[in-house]
Amino acid sequence: MGKTVLISGGGIAGPALAFWLRRAGFVPTVVEVAAGPRPGGQTVDLRGVSKTVAERMGLMPAVRERQLHERGMEYVRADGRRVAAMPVDLLDGAGPVAEIEILRGDLAGILADATSEVEYLYGDSITQLDQDANGVHVTFASGTRRRFDLVVGADGVHSRVRRLAFGPHDRFVQHLGGYTSYFTVETPEDLNHWMKTYTAPGGRWVALRPDHDPRFAKALLSFRSPVITYDYRDVEAQKALLLERFSGLGWHTQHLLARLTAADDFYFDSISRVAVPEWSQGRVALVGDAGYCGSPMAGHGTALALVGAYVLAGELAADGDHARAFSSYQRRMQAYVDQRMELPPGGIKMAMPMTATGIRYRDLMTRVITSKPFVGLLKAKPDVMELPNYSADRPLGVAAEQAE
Ligand SMILES: Cc1cc2nc3c(=O)[nH]c(=O)nc-3n(C[C@H](O)[C@H](O)[C@H](O)COP(=O)(O)OP(=O)(O)OC[C@H]3O[C@@H](n4cnc5c(N)ncnc54)[C@H](O)[C@@H]3O)c2cc1C
Q1: CATH superfamily name and code, 4-347+380-403
Q2: Which of 224, 305, 306, 361 could form a disulfide with 203 if both were Cys (CB 3.0 to 4.6 A apart)?
Q3: What is the arithmetic mean of pLDDT over 186-193?
């Protein structure tokens, strides 16, 4: 039997890693605290090396079936009047809205289907990790104890594995000054394939993005704030917080708030950056947001998760020594991770200005940079990473033991 690998987190990075490890002859198990694959989230994009990984996984037919065709992003005022726009065709898919956009929940579903043969432990989580020279003893919240050769934390920004094996949350996670939430609503207007955003003074951002079903839209409410102490599993308290922060605002905000209480795919989190200097400790490694995340403002979280999972599995399959494999994984990924964690110019202050003057200035700047002489400045830079082709030079299909 191949090496056993416990992966904590069944979001994007976890299932992608399980997919490749299984193909390479390992025996992956995924433990996910939620009761099943988590729906929800807005659109995420695939481009450059992340699109190549999705192609190598054979996911593109399913991705293309669920792909959304957004026309771009519009800034609107409280009365719905358009004040600036970034059309996707202006940048040939190399701007903030990419050529391939897919709902995060759809991608999670596609990955769950692609890993239907993998063992998933839903509704459970790791509570203790004890490493020795030959493996890791894992204790689960359910009380079960099992032993694995390796453990990987793919459990997001609030990673439990990181806390247990690397150190406290605050050592690695930097609050960038805001919170964000996503949920689905009946659409209050025909978006005509545009993402529409409205900013109100006080650093409050309201947006709607198209859904597959034209009757619905993906709502986003974000606000600037220093750290708030809250239970990140207490959904009702988070909804109450948003009702308070956004009450009385214009555009479609009241429509969104009226539907917030009933939303069943609600997601809320801080806008945070995760930077872990070393992505492995002994037999435990991190992948995706758990180890490196520039925040939703930087974007690219899904790309980093897919590429990170591919490279981690590829290196483990190619080198039977997990310590060497973990360090090559980081060496190959680091420059790409650093590039994709960069925030857009002006960071949260530019994205969510506090004052009416700041909002007008941002809209003016958007009109300027989307005008002909400046439009090139908006183009996404090509990925700094050259994706290893494990299937050609170091086959991912090789059994783990053979690689040793
Ligand atoms: C429901 C949801 C909606 C999202 N929507 C967006 C979006 O609209 N835009 C955007 O840019 N990013 C969004 N994200 C974040 C985005 O998915 C990630 O930035 C990126 O895809 C990297 O994926 P990941 O697998 O590393 O992390 P995530 O996708 O966050 O997945 C982590 C998984 O680990 C699970 N988990 C957490 N703690 C534990 C634990 N102790 N034990 C076991 N499992 C645990 C979580 O339930 C989750 O399924 C969303 C995340 C989630 C969970």
Answers
A1: FAD/NAD(P)-binding domain (3.50.50.60)
A2: 224
A3: 94
